[in-house]
Amino acid sequence: MAEYASYALILFALGAYVVLDGYDLGIGILGLFDRSDHRRKEYTELVATAWDANESWIILAAVILWAALPGVYATVLPGVYLPLVVMLLAFVLRGLGLEMQSSAPDYRPGWGRLFGFSSVVVTLCQGLVVGTVLSGLPQHGGVFDGGALRWLTPYSVLCALGLTALYLLAGAAWLQAKTQGSARRRAARLGRPLLALAVAACLVLGFGLEVADPQHFRFDQPLRAVLFGLLVAIAAACGALAWYGFGREPDARPFAAVLGAQVAGLLALVTATAPVVVPPGLSVHAAASPVGSQVFLLIGVGCCMPVVLAYNIYAWWVFRGKYRPPAEAALAVSAEPRQPVDARTDLMTNQIAPTENGLMTLARRVGFTVLGLGVVAVAQDVFGGQGEWIAPVTITLFGAGSLTAWLVGDRRAAAAGEFDIDQAAER
């Protein structure tokens, strides 16, 4: 049963990635078709708050897949090397364009185009990989037995286009939820056409899977058929709710509906194909690693996943509400009544500035780096095999310590006013 628990973790991480990173990839593509530099700058500022946290889920999914289902790794990777390598390079360029754009005082077209086109490449490559896996990979004895261009099939191309439509829909829904003014109106106007496009793509891919997938779907099993039908009905209801919500308040309703449709659609796909992971016949059990590795993985990932969830939720909480340009945010802050300063906060504020200097900062960073390397060395058990518990416990301590240091540093910086907008500079 451990392999099915690991399989559930992989599905959860992949689902979280599609839901969270899908909308910011869609926003990146939508920016290519927007003529307003002001709105394009707004889009990148929105994505810059969460893109790295969102992408952490695909890394987590890849790590679990590598350790829990090595048979899938050995079969799938050789068949999709080219789109995966291109996707990773596009990830790097996308992050570069986004961060450089975000750090610039105004919109820079070059960085904006880099961000947008790399978002397109990432989305298309992901669609090609998903379509290739769904349509089956030739294998012999658990090893890939196909050509270098096996990933280029009509179904994988359709899947790439369909995933682009889905991400565009999620991006438009997110923009309606997080923006105001012309950006919000434009997103609301685009929502319904994109929803119609996404529904058409899902229908084509759904019916096309019967032809492309070499395995025989077991819808003659009553439980599977009922569950599949229920999930499809939920996805259709969420789609109808999103259609109604575009252009209407509350603005968060379309994104919540799109999110529900995505989750229901992914679960329906798993219901139709499980326990086969790579068609035509590589199942979860056949691809799994030994039980000891599964238990080790479940302990380590089970401890790390709450940490990943925690910083995602914290990031969403910090940047909740509508996006406001810095100048508008400064006016809003100045209009708000000032709260009495807490004595502890005042003490921290007064202590930080005079005691911080370059030497102390350097010493603290060197100390944390040495401590981190030591913890990683222990986690890798470089000092000799003393017990299987060392690695998961140390990795958990390392993750919890890093999260604590980040939260403490964030609060100290907020108390010191480092996040406050310089209103004089804004004028």
UniProtKB/TrEMBL annotation:
* Pfam family for this entry, one: Cyt_bd_oxida_II
Question: Under which EC number(s) is this enzyme classified?
Answer: 1.10.3.-
Entry keyword set: Cell membrane, Membrane, Oxidoreductase, Transmembrane, Transmembrane helix
Q: How does it sit in the membrane?
A: Multi-pass membrane protein
User: Where is the protein found, in the record's own terms?
Assistant: Cell membrane
Alphabetical GO biological process terms? aerobic electron transport chain
One cellular component term from this protein's GO annotations in UniProt: cytochrome complex
GO MF term (any one): electron transfer activity
The record's InterPro entries line, in alphabetical order, gives: Cyt-d_oxidase_su2 (IPR003317)
According to the record, the segments passing through the membrane are 6-33, 45-66, 72-93, 114-135, 155-174, 194-212, 224-244, 256-276, 296-319, 366-383, 389-408
Q: Which family does it belong to?
A: Belongs to the cytochrome ubiquinol oxidase subunit 2 family.
What is the name of the protein in this document?
Cytochrome d ubiquinol oxidase subunit II
UniProt organism field: Kitasatospora kifunensis
